[in-house]
Amino acid sequence: MLKEKAPSSLMSSVVAPEKSTSNTMGPKEVELILVKEQNGVQFTSTTLVAPALTQTNSSGEEERETWGKKIDFLLSVIGFAVDLANVWRFPYLCYKNGGGAFLVPYLFFMVIAGMPLFYMELAVGQYNREGAAGVWKICPIFKGVGFTVILISLYVGFYYNVIISWALFYLFSSFSGELPWVHCNNTWNSPNCSDWADNNSVSDIYKATPAQEYFERAVLHIQDSHGIDDLGRPRWQLTSCLAVVIVLLYFSLWKGVKTSGKVWIEAATQICFSLGVGFGVLIAFSSYNKFSNNCYRDAIITSSINSLTSFFSGFVVFSFLGYMSHKHNVALDKVARDGAGLVFVIYPEAIATLPGSSVWAVIFFIMLLTLGIDSAMGGMESVITGLIDEFKFLHKHRELFTLFIVVATFLISLFCVTNGGMYVFTLLDHFAAGTSILFGVLIEAIGIAWFYGVDRFSDDIEEMIGQRPGKYWRLCWKFVSPCFLLFMVVVSFATFNPPNYGSYMFPPWANMVGWCLAISSMTMVPLYAIYKLCTLPIFRDHRLAYAITPETEHHLIDNGEVRQFTLHHWLVV
C-alpha cells in the first residue's frame, strides 16, 4: 500500500476521470491511498485533509471504479463472450443446418445485428456508467428491460453453473491410470453398454457407449429417475462440485470488477448467445471503463475474436466427429450430439483413444472450467452491478449482497444435481434465454435508437471517443436491427417446439412452468412502464414526456422543449 500527500489538482492522474466533477472548493490537500489491484481493477480512496470529504462527481455521488488496465476489460469481455456455446452450440448448429450453409445467415446476422448491438451495449454502458437497469435514465419508461436482462442472466446462472460442476467432476475423475468411461465393466453400466465397433447385435435404439453411460448413469444417475416429477435428492458428489464453483464465483466477484426458416432463427439466437448481447454483461463491464475509452475499437476486436473462435471450434469439433465416425464405422449423424452430449460424451470418448489419455482429459476439462467460469462470472456480475447501481444502499454491502446472490443461485441449482436434474436443466436451457433474450434486445434497440434517439446516441459516442458513428451503424441501430429482431421474436413464438430429452417428452405442466419463467422476464417491460407512469407526480401535465425524456433534460419539459414530440427526432438518422 502506498500512502502520500498530493494536491487535489493532481488526482486525475490517479483516479479515473468522470465526465465532470465538482470542484467548487478550490485546491485542497488530500490523503491518497492506493490499494493494490484486485481482479484487474485498481481501488483508490481519498480523504480531504481540510475539510474531510470523499471525491464526488457533479451529482454528488462517489467516483465509479474503473478497470486498472485496458487489457483487463478486453479479456473480461472476450472471456464472457467466448464460452461453452462456442464449443458445443455453434458446431452442432452448423452441422444440423447444412454445414457451410449455416454460415450464410450467421455471418449476415453478425453484420446487421450482432456487431451493431454489441457496439451499442458497450457504448451505452460506458457513457452512462451504470448497470443494465441504471442506464435507462436516458429513457426512464424503458427501465423494465434492464430488469428483463438481469432476470435472464440470473435464470441462466441457475443451470450454467451446473455445467461447470460437471466439468469439475470429470476433471477429478481424469486423475486416474485409466479413464472411467473406457470400458463397460463398471458398476453403473447396463447390459446395453457396448462399443459401436465391437457389437452389431444390439439395436441402435438401445446401444450406448461407455462414455454415454458414464455421463448419464455414473454422473447424472438419470436411471434412478422416471422424469421431471421424480427428481430425488441432490447427489452429494455433484453438490460438492457445485459448491466449489459457487465459492470460486463468490471470491471472484465480492470486491467488484477490480478484482430453412428455422436455420435463420437458430442463427439469430446463436448470435445473442455467442456475443453475449442481451444479458446486461456488456453494459455492466463497459460501465467501469474510462469515459474516453474507444468502445468502437473494442466492439470490433471482441466480436471478431468471438466469431473466429467459433469457426476454429467448428473445425476441431468436426475433426473429432469425423474421427469417431470412422473409428466406429457409423454414419456421422450417429455421432453428432447437441449440448452436453457433445462435450461430456463425444469429446471424452475421443480423448480416451489418445496415448496418455488421462493427461489430455485433464487439460480438456481445465479448458472447459476456464471457459465456463469466465462466462458465469460475467452473468453474475451483470446481476450484481445492475441491482447495486439501481439500489444505491447496496453499495456499502456489496460483499453481503454478492453472498446472498450466489447462495440463492446455489440453492436453486441443487434441483439440477438430483437424479432427475437433467430434466430440470433441459427445461431451464430451453426457456430461460430463448425468445426472451431476443425480446430484451429488441426493446433495448427501440429504446435507444428511437426514443432516446440515434442522433443523440451518436453525439454521446462522439463525446467519448471523438468520432461520430458512420451511417452504417446508425442505419442498423434505427432500422435494420430492430426490424430483424422483431421478425425473429414473432417467428420464434410461431415455430415453438416443446423441449425433450432423448425420447422423454415433458408433461404439459412442465412446459407451462417453462413459459412462466420466460414470460416473467419479458413482463418486466410493460409492468415497469405502467409503474413509472402511475408514480409520476399527478400535478405534472406531461407524464409521458417525463417518462420518455432523459432525466437530465426534465427541466426542459416545463418550457415545452420535448425532443420526442418533434417530427425531426423520429426521422433523423
Notes on the structure:
InterPro entries: Na/ntran_symport, SNS_sf. The chain crosses the membrane at residues 73-91, 103-124, 145-172, 236-253, 265-288, 300-323, 335-354, 360-388, 400-425, 431-454, 475-496, 508-531. Its main location: membrane. The chain is mostly helical. The chain folds into two domains: 70-196 and 206-535, no CATH class; 540-572, no CATH class. The protein has helices at 70-81, 84-96, 100-128, 143-173, 210-219, 236-253, 261-275, 281-286, 295-328, 340-351, 357-390, 398-413, 421-431, 435-465, 471-494, 508-522, 524-535, 543-548, 554-557, 567-571, and strands spanning 2-7, 29-38, 41-48, 500-501, 504-505. It has a three-stranded antiparallel sheet, with no helix packed on it. A two-stranded antiparallel ribbon has the order 4-5. A hairpin with a 2-residue loop joins β2 and β3. α3 crosses α15 (471-494). It starts with a strand and ends with a helix.
